[in-house]
Amino acid sequence: MSDNKKSINKIGKADAVLNAADDKLTVAGMYAMQPHKWILYLGIVLVIAVLIGWSASDMSFSGMTATGTEVAKGVLHGVFHPDTKLLFGTSDSDVPYLLMQTIAIAVLGTLFGAILAIPFAFLASTTIMPKPVAFVFRAIILLIRTIPSLVWALMWIRVTGPGAFCGVVTQSVCSIGMISKMYITAIEDLDTKILESLDAMGCTPFQKIRYGVLPQLTASFISTTIYRFDINLKDATTLGIVGAGGIGASLMQCLNSRRWAMVGSFIWGLMVLVLIIEFASTKIRKKLARG
Amino acid sequence: MSEEYTEPKKKVKLFDRIFKPQVITIANGHTAVRPRSRLPFILIVLAIVIAWALYMTEFSLATVFSRVNELFYILSRIFRPKWSFFGKVISPLIDTIKMSIMGTFIGCALALPFAVLASSNIVHNRVVISVVRFILALIRTVPTLIIALVCALIFSLGTFAGTIAIAIFTFGVVAKMLYESIETIDMGPFEAMEALGADKFRAFWSACIPQILPVYLSHCLYCFEMNVRASAILGYVGAGGLGITINERIGWRDYNGLGMVLLALFVVVFAIEFLSEYLRKKLS
Fold first, then answer.
1. Which residues constitute the domain of residue A36?
2. Is the Cα dihedral B112, B118, B119, B124 positive or negative?
């Protein structure tokens, strides 16, 4: 409604200008018609400036630590002179093994998360379930999403003990939040006309699901899962910091004990792995989207 | 149309060469080919990968079920937050918000010029584009926590290290999202202004910036949302903010206190997400 009013106002204004200019378009007349938005812009800029000023007030740059420059140089040196024995070794403390473990954590975490998310998504979509039920499940999904993954990992460690196993369980739970959120959108976008026509043809409920629902959902479900795998892989590299397996733990130990060559090789391994997975996942998802 | 219709030649994929497509003869004599389904092949590969992953991670469902009550014990304590702890949460919470505002601002400000340099419709030099994009991709591969840890080692512990870590992360993400959106803008106005005799910079300023600005602001807000979540755990490696408190509470097994921290975080994240979603809707 307000949009309509605005445009009517604008037309009224334009008429006034045109009349004043004796039905001629003049540069000055057109300028007068320009929407006056500078007050809004000024307001936005002021708000942003105040926010930044407020947050900068506490930001004390206390200079680098005594060892600061040494650390910075060390990291750079490590990146350019990685420990090649570690980078291509085959024992279970070398980069390839740790990377494989990281991938394994992400694969299983994503898979379990994707499976667990299916019931959640159906129970939380308003088109299928009654409103109160859907609302309760949405609240649960929101709660799962709010607890940061590191905190989940720290809680699951009490159950599973440290190791890659903990990473898998953590990611299975963490993934539910985002995956089911995207599943819900896919389910609510279902084209119900197809189901109606299948009904008219006399299909059984099973046939309706097989030919009416599944073909519409699989592509977007798989695409979501692959996208989440991408995220989980990056997440799995940091879960190691709390002891949940993967490459993170060793990387952090090397950083803290200042073994720069080892840090360099870990960072190289990580970068290559993430780049490859990101490239592959974008490619597959593009293919799925085009059908 | 006397010429007979000939099927356009398609490149036969390797898969179809090995597993010959099924030829179906229809009642009227015509034949149709149906390529063999890839599904069995995909399922076999997936099964092998899963078996390997289960072996690598020493996964055991039995452990989960037999010891899951430990998790419920923690969760039940979390859901009974210790309200008296609220006073101690406020200060790190504000630190976290300040860190994310400052980090987002620095990162977004740096991202704009690099995003322009990486978009193929404005810069026509392939070398510049590929170099900038490669650098952005490399920055995005390093996890935020690792950046934060390195920053904490370089600039002593505290919020400054966290701010720099967030700024670097934001820079990588916003620049990527931005160059992808810049490539979709309408270049017509730009060409029209150039034809009228405007120099490149003037034309870019008046024709492209008004198109880019709303998208840019929307990306910044989205990133700010993510950063509030992310900065809450940066403290775990000593980069200031709520993470320190979270780490401390878990270390002392004070799960009621942890519940309070998480509740405060939840309220703030929810409020910021709500506000940012509202603003982004206005922008688009």
1. 7-56
2. positive
